Amino acid sequence: MSSKRFIISAAVFVGIAVGAWVLARSSELDKAPALSLLFGAALGVALECGRFCFFCIFRESIEERKTRALLSIITALAVGAIGYSIVFGLYLPSPSGEGLPPLAHISPVSIPLIVGAVAFGLGMVLSGACISGHLYRLGEGWLRSVPALIGSLIGFGLGFITWNSLYLGMISESPVWWLPRSLGYGGSLAVTLVVLGALAWVILKMDRYGPEHREPARSVVDAVFGRRWTWLASGSVVGAIGVLAYLRVSPLGVTSQLSTVSRTFLDGQGLLPEVMHGIDVMKGCIGTVSSAITNNGWLVIGLVAASFASATAGGRFKVVVPSVRGSATGLAGGVLLGWGAMTSLGCTVGVLLSGTQSFALSGVVFGAVVYATVVGGVKLGLHRGE
Amino acid sequence: MTTSTKNRVVRSVAAAIVGLTGFVVAGPASASTATTPNIVETSWLESNLNNPKVRVIEVSTDPGVYEKGHIPGAVNFRWHTDFVDAVNRDIVQRKRFQDLVQAAGISTDSTVVLYGDKNNWFAAWGVWIFKTYGAKDVRILNGGRDKWVKEGRALTPAVPAVAKGNFTATTADRKLRAFLPDVVRIGRKIDRKTKLVDIRSADEFSGKIFAPAGFQELAIRAGHIPTAKNVPWSTAVNSDGSFKSPAELKKIYADAGITGKEPVIVYCRIGERAAHTWFVLSQILGYEVRLYDGSWTEYGNSVGVPIANPAGTVWGRG
Fold this sequence. Notes:
By secondary structure, chain A is mainly alpha-helical. Chain A is built from 15 helices and no strands.
């Protein structure tokens, strides 16, 4: 690694550490902002070094039958489910009653969840990534993420505007399906692991490529930043970060700060209904009206900064300016991503990962619909708008 | 080992010894060092955590606060579900409360210590409910959860496994609770003896605002019940969230004409912050106090009852 790259990368990591220290010092009681920044940084490294881009992984599995990277998502779900079942045992020792574990992303399984997932999947195909993908790829210098993220802010705003009618019409009466209520934690974990195991078997059966040939690492820095992490490493780390984030702050998600920015802006313009019905009782990535940086905002800052630092360390940082067409499809896809994430109360991280790890059917349904939509979108060639 | 860690270890060992000795020598829960019997200090609680007669309950407002870490051995009570009967807008029913309290390992001879976030608002509400149902020894942790944490004392996410207690709830004590007719008699100046204390902010009291920032407007009129005195709840606490001394508290309320010679009723917006002042006046100063839990959301919306609205914002007058 050139010394210039090393210095830039090290400076960013030190900056993140100093930022976390300052945040931790700013309140004797509330350590969540500092922890969020660090969890975000860890996530940024894991996503970047693992190329944990949901759309890229989905697309390769569809177009090339290069399916092994899907195992990183399966691993993240499995590791997360194990960790969540341990944390749930602390937070809600008896799951059979009416209560749900605090803060966990367990939401109603409704028509809007499905429609939101379709929109989100199309948004991924059109813009080339999901929201977490755009965030970490922004750190790699991929500037198509900029119109996509701007589009997502517009989409979140549209999501708030359509929320009341969707909530009153459908979401409020939809059931919340949470597996531990009927199977307990042990049973839910067993079922989840068996299903994930079966999926892993199918994934390996479908794979046309086999394991990648890997040169031995030349140094520790090379081992961490120089080469793509294996599916086992990236999935395990992403799963573990999810569990730790839930233990100390809240379930992992990457959209609530974006959603907060949109909601605060629209609220300031008087464009939102005075009351957002039922939104306070929903569990997921939901923006509030706040001009301060939320915990999720610190997480996103940590994610993008650490992704930049690890891409720089690995020599992958490269500014890629999108074409006009790429910017337009990025923006349009972003709007769909934002609307879908608002309506489904989260994205591939907040609902697919954190929801499924929580044994919520909403997470499974969202994930399945997003994947099916991406299959359709890729088959139709909608992703070729770059 | 750093000095602060060393101090913490020394303090923990000392606390354990004091606790053990206190329990063996003086018997359960008699070693309170607090100036007022219904308040315990953090140091006392830390040294009594292994005292089987002391049961600790956390009542916090935000979801996940208890779960992520609480005082070792503390049981979680949720204000929204465990202390109220939401369907009837009432306090929790006797049988349900007894079941919850027994499940928390509380017996008739237990010393119950409540604490929570937000300056013990909901812990104070909890004390009011416990007293209403006849609990004899119920106390508040001075300074609540925040003071405990700031002092570097331990938290744990582990939920305690407790054996069922034998607490028996009495029928609800009506002497601790006021209802709409009671306060209407004061508002109409039929009852000129009972003093009313409105513990909301000055702007809510005057009617300048209908609800505190960030809260939904729940009453169609703004202002207060005629004759009420405005003493915001926060005037009773120090900057670390602990209660001011009895002498200071006595003066604060005496300055507002509340001396304890006449019976008192306290109220706020939905009844929860007023529980804090109920605790101060009744449990620290020993005054005769009732909590009007219907509070402004009931009174301010009621038909045919007078209000005072010095800010001139009352509905219909713009």
